[in-house]
Each structure stands twice: as structure tokens, then as C-alpha cells.
């Protein structure tokens, strides 16, 4: 495209505030009728039978929602089903020879692996038989400490088949994190691997697993080890350690009858990362969770069985559980898994994979999109991405500039973008546009899904005026919700309900779920998530969302990413500190600093004017890619640095601190 025309296009996109899904998308969308919002409201909670109907039940449920003991809600009670049978067995007749998982390893000279539904079913059965032989029984928690290799979803589904809840610990977490989680769940079984490939290196994972096992306070019965690295790493095996391939070979051809689980039986535990305190064991159940992930995968991700669907998250996070494994497989589609990072061997790896597999959807995170943007559009431009039909984002608010970049350079201005707000605790998506129904507004996640009652309230629990910041709340239960924190009902009530509920009441109307996020709502009901409530600054008595200011800064030409925190200020209470990464090809310095200050003043007002702008090559991030603002706050206040052990890049904090000291 001639340069002049490109500039024009950028200007047009920069001004555009609403985007209409294309006619070609709408005409084929799974959900394209606006009336779904009204019907679901009128028919709530029975509307969720639609979600349950996407599943095969061994025993029909009697009650959609049992709300007799809030906030301990139960869904589809009396019903029985098995998650592995729903993800595998029922697809065999029609889709047995179709790919269930397309796995791409990081090394480009390695052969990728395809598992058809038939093959996946076989291996899940074999591993389920092995687990049973090891003595794993119904309701025994099996921990998995594994990277993005096919044996991870296989182990998860094998557990689901025999009714043993899994607890997946992200492979990037420390040995300590593994021990804490195994102790908390009383888990006597571990499935792990020798190592994996990361940016060209063979990482030795087994040593870390062994160190973690050393911290487990009870006896560990069995440790299964997948040999991922082969000759690249001769890993040590302990006495109760068993080789995965041997186990599966020993049970070749075995068939394990899927156990019939009560809808409310636990499917898995997932410990949230604990960026805000001790890890919480979020409990998800078989019926409600699976119904929720299946329904949202169909309605929001627009998944059809013949699609090749690519979510670039890690299965170690809830996004991978819900939208790589359970949602897509329950619908019988092809789900992709990629082992490595998007910048290895080159910064076009994802685009290469999408082109090769002709992926229909891409679901990723703002942190990745900002990185793609920083690397430049020449990388996606080298590839044919026309197979893509829908784009998604999750994990943090996405600023309009990154949204538009994604829309233009990845989606070719033809794919709707779903900006999905949800969390580990919600099990699946809660706030997002239905892509075949609603217009998109960059920066705003959209209206709550049909049947989901989200309100933005002030500290008294009253709805705030459109445009004003408040707290996001969910006023009614939903099938995918967590049921409790593992063996800690009290903390469950305390963490999520106490703030806005009358905790003495047994009337469900008196119970309100509080996800601890701030948000604002527009006249048209669209919700803009501002970030965690602890990410709100108080500058001279004005409450400002860090996200709002960050969004203004990232809107400035040449800025790739920004993080804003409050530093103590004698007069204002708090002052705005901005940490900024520039795009490649732009210079850090006074000129850029002035433009940033101006950008914030224009977008929000002089009240939000940054006291300091600190340029940095990186921001401190957790392994899930979230900015650790707490540490940046310590830096701004010249305080001793807090715990950096859950950071992906701990070294950057002292580097930033030295820059602030120089100022
Ligand atoms: P922890 O709860 O352990 O501190 P976490 O909250 O980062 O960790 P997740 O459950 O993975 O763990 O993340 C959910 C949070 O991510 C939400 O509460 C919200 O703050 C943020 N989030 C997710 N999706 C979006 C989105 N589309 N827009 C804005 N924020 C989002
Ligand atoms: Mg959280």
C-alpha cells in the first residue's frame, strides 16, 4: 500500500469509535439474533438449559438452579455426566478421524503432532487405566506440573474420565509454588515432565519438580514423568517415579468406562496466581463449568466443529483450561497447542502457524498484542492470515490503539474482535460482545453476556451514573461460577461476597459477587474494565483508574506500553508515576515526555498529569503477563522492594529503580 494511503487509513481508524461486524461474519455466526438478550433475561435461570443442552448427560438434571443456600449455589442438580466422554467419546462416530489437537512444538525442525479424536480417545483411556492402576480413585486430586505438551490435556481428560479432579500448576512457577499447591490440595499424585523447549534452549523441568516434591509435607504416592527432551536431557528418576510412555504402553488398548459424575462434583481445582495474597484453590464443577465453557465457546468464539481454533494461552492458566481444552473439545472442533514463545525463532512464529494451519480464530492477550505491535506489522504482513474469521483478547484491558492495530494488521479489518472480561473464578467469559450481534467499541469489553447480570456500583452498592468509575459486581449466579475455595468456605464468602452482600440473609437477592475489578458503564450498557480496584489512584481527592491513564499514554505515537502507579505526594496525596516503553524506532527523551504529558492532559485532564515519566525497556511482569504495579509503587516511593519471586523478569525492577533515583 502506498504510504500516503496508509497514513489516511490510520487517521480514519484512530477516529473511529464503533465497529460493526461484517455482513459475511454475521451471516454465518452461531448467534446472530439480538433477541437472545431479552429471552435470557425473561427466562432466567431456565435460559441456561440451552447451555446444558450442548452436553450429553447420563442422567437428566431435575433443577436448573438450587439457590436455597447462597452463596453456595448449585446448578443442574440431580444431573450426571462425564467431562471426558463429552469431550471425546461422543464425537467418535462423526469426527473420529478429524483432528482434535494440532500440536506445534517449539523447535522448527521437529515434526508436529496431530491427534485425531480417535487417537486422543485411545491415549486418554490408556492413561486413565494407568492412573487407576496406580490407585488414583474418584475425588483424589492429581497435580500436573507441565508445559504445553499434548500429555497435559491427555492427563487432564484421563483424570476427568475417572472422576479425579486435576490441579494444574503452571510450568513457569517455582518449586515452592508447586509444593504449596500440592500441600493445600493434599495431592498424592504428580504428573510432570523432564523438560521442554523455550527460545531454543532445552529447559530442565524435572529438577524443579523434584525440588518441589521435597517440600510436600505428606507422602507422595506416584510421580509420572513425560520424556519430552529425549536425548537432550538424561533425567534422574526416583523410586516412585514412572515413565509416561511405559505406563501408556503397558495399558495399550485399555478402555476405561467414564464414571458418571454428579453435576456438582468437582472437575478441577485451579489455584489463582496469588498476585494478591496466598493462592486460592478455586473449585470448579463438572456440569456447570462444562456447560458454561461449551456455551461461551459456541456463542462468543463462534466455534464450529470444522474450525481450527487457536488460543495462544498456556493451559496452566484458566484460559487454557476453558478455551484450549474443555470448551473447544466439548464442541468437537480442532484445538491448537503451541509449545513455544511467539518470538522464536522469529517474531512471526504465530503468523506462520496460523498460515500453515489455516486457523479460523485467534484468542490471545493484550500483553502479546502490544508486543506484536512493538515488533512491527512487517511480521504479520509476510503471511496470509485470511483464514482468520474472529479475534479475541483476554487478561487485561486493551487500549484502543492496540485494539485497532490487532483489528487492522491481524484481522484485515474483517474479523470481529471479542474483548472478553472474566476470571479464574468465573470459569468462563462474562462480559463481551456477542460477535454476530453487537457492534464493537475499542477499549470497552462490551455488554454483559445474555443472562449475566453485571452492574457497576459505588461503595454503597448503588449503580453509578454512566461514565463514572465504580466497582464491577455480578448480581446473579451463573453456571460456570466457582463453588467455593477448596476446603475454605469461609474465605470464599469473605473474598468474593462479603463486600456487597447481607451475609446473614438466605435470600439470593441479598447476595452480590464482587470480582475486585473497577469499571465504568456507558449509556448503552457497554462496560469498560479499569483494572483491579487496588489499581485506582487518589489524586487530590479524584479517583483515577491507572488503566485510564495508561490508555491515554499508549495512545501517544511511539509509545508501546505503559504502566501507571501512585507515588506518595505531600500535597496531592498520590501523584501519577508513569513507566513507559517506547516503540522501536522512537527516541526516549524530553520531546517524548512532553508529548506523553500532553496526551494525558488532553484525554483526561490536568489532574492526571504525570509527576514523573520513566522510560524503561521492560515492565516487571508476572508469568501470566500481568504488570506487577505493587513493585513499581515501591520504586516510586523509594521503598524497599517487595517480593519479586513470581516475576518473569525480576532483574528489571532494580534497573528501573536506579533510573528513578537518577531523576
Ligand atoms: P490473582 O487473582 O491470583 O491475583 P489474576 O486476577 O491475575 O490473579 P486471572 O483470574 O487470570 O488471575 O485474571 C482475571 C483478572 O484479569 C480479572 O479480574 C481482570 O482484572 C483481568 N481481566 C481479564 N480479562 C480482562 C479484560 N478483557 N479486560 C480487562 N481486564 C481483564
Ligand atoms: Mg483475580
Which hetero ligands occur in this complex?
Answer: adenosine-5'-triphosphate, magnesium ion
CATH domain class of the domain at 117-259: Alpha Beta
The order of strands across the largest sheet is: 5-4-17-16-18-19-20
Average pLDDT level: 93
The helix tally amounts to 22
The helix fraction, in percent, is 25-40%
Features:
binds adenosine-5'-triphosphate, 21% strand, 663 residues, GMP Synthetase, Chain A, domain 3, 29 strands, binds magnesium ion, 7-stranded mixed β-sheet, Rossmann fold, alpha/beta
Write the layout of secondary structure elements.
Blueprint: H1 3-15, H2 23-28, H3 36-43, H4 49-52, E1 63-66, E2 74-77, E3 80-81, H5 83-87, H6 92-95, E4 99-104, E5 113-116, H7 117-134, E6 142-146, H8 151-162, E7 166-170, H9 175-185, E8 189-193, E9 195-198, E10 201-204, H10 206-214, E11 222-226, E12 241-243, H11 244-250, E13 261-262, E14 266-271, E15 281-285, H12 286-299, E16 308-311, H13 318-330, E17 334-338, H14 349-357, E18 361-364, H15 366-375, H16 378-381, E19 390-394, H17 400-410, E20 417-420, E21 454-457, E22 469-474, H18 489-496, E23 517-521, E24 527-532, E25 536-539, E26 542-545, H19 546-554, E27 559-569, E28 573-582, H20 590-603, E29 612-615, H21 629-636, H22 651-662
Parallel strand pairs: 4-17, 6-7, 6-8, 7-14, 8-11, 11-12, 16-17, 16-18, 18-19, 19-20, 28-29
Antiparallel strand pairs: 1-2, 3-13, 4-5, 9-10, 14-15, 21-22, 22-23, 23-24, 25-26, 27-28
Bound molecules: adenosine-5'-triphosphate and magnesium ion (MG).
The site of adenosine-5'-triphosphate has 23 residues, from β20 and β24.
